[in-house]
Amino acid sequence: LQENIEKHTTCSWSPFLREDQLSCAAPKAKRQHETNVRDNTQKLEKNYDGLYQSPSDYKLPPFWKGPEKCFRKFCLFTNQDHGEGMSLITTGRIAYLAANSPIPSTPGLEPTAYYEAEVPGKGAGLFANRTIRKGEIIFQRHPVLAVQFTLHLDLDPQAREELYQVAINRLPEATRARFVRQIGTTAYDKVEQNAFRLFLDGDHTHSSHLGLFPEVSKMNHDCRPNIHYRIANLTHTTVAVRDTPPGDELTVSYIYGKTLHADRQTQLRNYWGFNCTCSQCSTLPTPKADASDGRIRQIRALENEIETLLTAQGTIKGGEGARPEMNGALVGLYLAERLDAYLAPTYTRAALLHSMFGDEERARVFAAEAVAALEREVGLMAMDLESMRRLAGDPRGHWSWGIRVAAN
Ligand SMILES: C[S@@+](CC[C@H](N)C(=O)[O-])C[C@H]1O[C@@H](n2cnc3c(N)ncnc32)[C@H](O)[C@@H]1O
């Protein structure tokens, strides 16, 4: 399950991520985290050298310009007509893949469904203009600018700024105007403060990029966000994870969700450079903040216990002592903590556990919740989606039905 979920969320939150596996949305964190990757990349680059063709060997579809302004094997490729327009600073191979990838199928909410306003202590933010329902897609976008990650780190600052300015100037006027409204004074600052991590070529060398989505980046951080984001290749999707009434702010989490209060503050200060003023951090009275940390600790302990029991002897059947109500308790803790953005694995395991113990009604209920949560958090390509649909429809016909009872 863990593997499946991680494979399909190339850059998305998962409760299975460890605390040191940092956010897709934290450029400074990425920089520290990236050091080893960069060393590896340089080693790999040597091995792959013979395989790389020159950037101009890749024939891009019509309306694409480039390669131009090359540094080593990285060049600028631009297209004014691709959706909102796109500038890529990358290899010929990745430009070719990106140029041939589909434009997101839905733009998301109608523009009147939300508005931008100033939030005390946070700058601008986005707000609901009508009730936004759980499961609604807020935005589905491709990046308007994507820069290969090691190039962003390695380029001489002046050359980098000049290159980024050219890339931005090549965007259509309306897109450029949205780009410029992102926080940050220089183009480099804007990339640093607003980018999301994209992996554009699987595990291949040079795959890691920083992508800019100017509308998405108007969303502020909240430790208990009402919006979840997931990224698959070029497509960035934001989805509502609970109903949001008109006037409420639309927020995502920039950091790992199940983190203790003090650690969240430290991460946001160190990696993002701001003191978090979300309600969970700034206005929660100490007893409530302590209770919240207590629930996070309970979640971690229960998850470890369940994982150990279920995977004992390397098989889901093997563990002694697993009880279905353990996962019911876990779901309760997640909901009490308003961690609505991270429910898919918990519902999936709860459904499986109840099915394994032959509890038809609860297996159905949790499987139906798992289906909805997987669609929100992972998308329609989620590996467990079909299995959970089958479990919700016919628990007795599912592979997991009664196996725990039989194993006893
Ligand atoms: C990607 S931008 C979000 C939009 C930004 N507020 C704007 O005006 O465009 C990230 C920046 O917003 C501010 N911010 C976001 N969430 C915040 C929070 N929970 N508390 C305080 N500042 C926050 C910080 O200045 C942060 O560096």
TrEMBL record:
SUPFAM superfamilies: SET domain. The keyword Repeat does not apply. Keywords: Signal. It comes from the Eukaryota. Residues 107-255 form the SET domain. InterPro entries: SET_dom (IPR001214), SET_dom_sf (IPR046341), SET_domain_protein (IPR053185). This is SET domain-containing protein.
